[in-house]
Amino acid sequence: MSLWIKENCVSFFQLFCIKVIKTGRVPQHIAFIMDGNRRYAKKNSVDKSTGHHKGFDKLSETLKWCLDLGIPEVTVYAFSIENFKRSKEEVDALMELAREKFQNLLDEIDQIDEWGVRVHVAGRLSLLPEHLRSLVSKVMLATKDNNRLCLNIAYAYTGRDEISRAASRIIDGVKENKISPENIDEELISQSLDLGEPELLVRTSGEVRLSDFMLWQISNTVLYFTDVLWPEFTIWNLLAAIIHFQRNAPPIKAEDTNETAHEKEEFLKYLEQRRAQELTKYIS
Ligand code: FPP
Ligand code: MG
């Protein structure tokens, strides 16, 4: 049994509803701000760490629902740079939770491969403890060839920090003559970021803020806010979010047929190489 993808959590009737929803347009990239773990813990008189563990269990159910819905990309906000300001006890518990779950993922890699899940951890990895940084790098390398569902985990992440890291990469590219300033445009900036544009963003727990999540990417995203606490999120909440998307989605963008300048393509390859080198460096 996989810990990351919860099996047997969809009833026959729910599967039927998923099929009905799939006759309409389903978002190709959905992002979640998984909020409300500590309020859930308080409500149920358990400690905060248990609340976060329940939050992880909910993520594994949500991934199964997304796989059944045929959604190819899911991004979750699992740890913000701001979260480092929480008590040492809570930060340590969250880091330990991540360590345990990423280690489980490597231990069950055959099942992850069977599900076709690729894991990409996006954020300022240099802020993580060394053992966790090495572990997430191993997870990314181990799953890089899977292509049924890409799971982006925003960890030690904020949207503004992501934009500033992309700016630094572009400046390095200019300094190393890999890109000329006149080729820097919106497309190049988008492609220099860690994360792509979600079509639907869901935030739980009644908060209606963005909390510095994917700021560049959500310019055209449908937003859905629900009062339910993340550990109590159900498949019905997810289907309601998708119906909201179906009612409010902007028209599908026509494929950009403009040829990308050769220099830009080369620069993007250079970025890919740099990312790969960084991962290998973290592992060794
Ligand atoms: C927000 O609720 C949740 C977090 C800061 C942590 C989210 C992490 C998980 C769901 C586990 C994911 C783990 C991995 C390894 C992917 P909160 O703490 O802000 O709760 P509150 O809003 O009720 O205070
Ligand atoms: Mg919160």
From TrEMBL:
The keyword 4Fe-4S does not apply. It is an enzyme of class 2 (transferase). One of its GO terms (cellular component) is dehydrodolichyl diphosphate synthase complex. Keywords: Coiled coil, Magnesium, Transferase. Its EC number is 2.5.1.-. Residues 81-108 form a coiled coil. InterPro entries: UPP_synth-like (IPR001441), UPP_synth-like_CS (IPR018520), UPP_synth-like_sf (IPR036424). It catalyses: n isopentenyl diphosphate + (2E,6E)-farnesyl diphosphate = a di-trans,poly-cis-polyprenyl diphosphate + n diphosphate. GO terms for biological process: polyprenol biosynthetic process. GO terms for molecular function: ditrans,polycis-polyprenyl diphosphate synthase [(2E,6E)-farnesyl diphosphate specific] activity. Belongs to the UPP synthase family. This is Alkyl transferase. It comes from Bombyx mandarina. The gene is LOC114241813.
